[in-house]
Every structure is written in C-alpha cells, then in structure tokens.
Specification:
Phosphorylase Kinase, domain 1; 2 domains; disordered C terminus
C-alpha cells in the first residue's frame, strides 16, 4: 500500500450523464498523478463526500469489492466524489426491480462470496441505502457503491444495536417469509468468521489508517472528527452487536 491513501484528481473531459443515476451521476475522464482514468462521478454534499471516501477506503482495506474512490475537482475547483468506472451496470438493469426483497435479488445475492463480509460492513457503518441500484453486476461479479447515507450521526450512536433493517444481513439470514432457503445456516461458523473480520477492523484502527485517510481529505467539514469517533468507537461494539443479531436469543454468545 502506498503512503498516500486518498487519490485526488481533476476532471479533464466532458461529462456523460448516467440515465438512471441518482444525484445526477455522470461518466468522465479524470487525471490523477499524471495518469488518466475513466470514472463515475457525482456532486453531493460535503458530508456525503467524506462518508463515500471513508467507507470506500475502509471497505477496500478489508478486501470488499468497492471501486477505488477518487476525490475530484471540476474546472471551477468544486469538489465532487468519483470512483473508477468498473464498466458494468447495476443489478437493477438485470432484474428491472429495485425492491431488495424480491426472490430474484436473493437468488443472486445468496451465492455472492462477499455476502458475509458485506453484511458485516453495512452493519458496521449502519448503511440503510442498500438495494439493486447500488450493487453493480456483470453476471458474475458484484461491486458495492453508494455509502453516502451511512453513519447518520444525528440518528445513531456508535453502540446502536437495534435492528435497523440491514438488507444484506437479512438475505444472509433469510429473515423474511418470501424466501425458502435450502441451506441451514451454521451460526457458530458465521460467528467465528465474524471474529476474524473484527480482528481486521481492529488492525486498521491500531494502524490509524482511517485517521490518516480522514486527515488526508482536503475537504473542510466539522464532521470529520465525529465520523472518526463513530468508527473507532463502533469497532468496540460491533462484534457483540452482530453476534446478537445472529443469535437473538443468546445475547452473550461466545465463539467456540
């Protein structure tokens, strides 16, 4: 990993609007460190830019399939958020439905190799905005985008442990009656995988990588320290929170 965590670039081409994009997303070419990249970009609030950058960096550090983020400047020196264009559409294009509780959505998600880690991640950042429109899919691989609505500091504290409808977690646990899961979930194995996942989060915290990333972001915003506090504090609670979600009737579940 290079010393520089945040990639900063400048838009150098005309924009191509994405028809179904939220926040008026568009494709363009960006120049970063004398290299040109095809990117997908969007103009969003400063706090959402921070969240997008932080979540993308954190997710990539734990090997989640999230496109590399880029902080972009336009010709007027206005910041926007961008990420490398992976070149394939979202699940909505394949399914023509956005409701994440459809059987067709589950049939794809249930065999996704990153489902466990992705569901833990969404629980960690408290991401309520997960649906077919922000999971990119090429018929084989899935990539995660759009984390700007996570970590809602005015609604959630770092130790929030109530069920807030984690979409990916609900698919992992088959927690709705429309689904008929053929597999029997091994909860002990899942909790042991969670332990390994949480160790990665602790290692990231111990190495101050999120702190370093936040300090690198050249966007002035009062919530920088609050977001850092949220993540570092939530890392202390997340294993117990998810264990309790997996085993709601066994609040003090211990891995064996």
């Amino acid at each position: 990993m290079t010393d520089k965590i945040i990639k900063v670039g400048r838009i150098i081409s005309d924009s191509e609007p994405i028809e179904d994009g939220i926040n008026s997303s568009f494709r363009c070419i960006a120049c970063c460190d004398n290299e040109e990249y095809p990117v997908v970009a969007k103009y969003i609030k400063g706090i959402e830019i921070l969240k997008e950058l932080i979540c993308a960096i954190l997710g990539r550090l734990i090997n989640l399939p999230i496109p590399e983020p880029i902080l972009l400047l336009d010709q007027y020196d206005v910041f926007c958020f961008g990420s490398l264009d992976v070149g394939y559409p979202n699940l909505y294009h394949r399914l023509n439905i956005q409701d994440p509780y459809y059987i067709e959505f589950h049939s794809i998600i249930k065999s996704w190799s990153a489902l466990e880690s992705a569901s833990f991640f969404d629980e960690f950042i408290i991401n309520p905005d997960r649906h077919s429109g922000n999971l990119l899919y090429n018929g084989k691989d899935i990539a995660m985008i759009d984390h700007g609505l996570s970590m809602q500091l005015d609604k959630f504290t770092p130790n929030h442990d109530e069920d807030w409808n984690n979409i990916l977690f609900n698919h992992l646990l088959c927690k709705f009656t429309e689904l008929s899961c053929e597999h029997k979930l091994d909860k002990i194995a899942l909790c042991n995988k969670l332990t390994i996942w949480c160790e990665k989060i602790k290692e990231i915290n111990n190495n101050n990588l999120i702190d370093k990333a936040i300090n690198e972001i050249p966007v002035a915003h009062k919530s920088k320290n609050e977001l850092l506090y949220f993540l570092t504090s939530r890392s202390e609670f997340i294993q117990k929170i998810i264990n309790n979600r997996i085993n709601p009737n066994q609040m003090d579940f211990v891995n064996v």
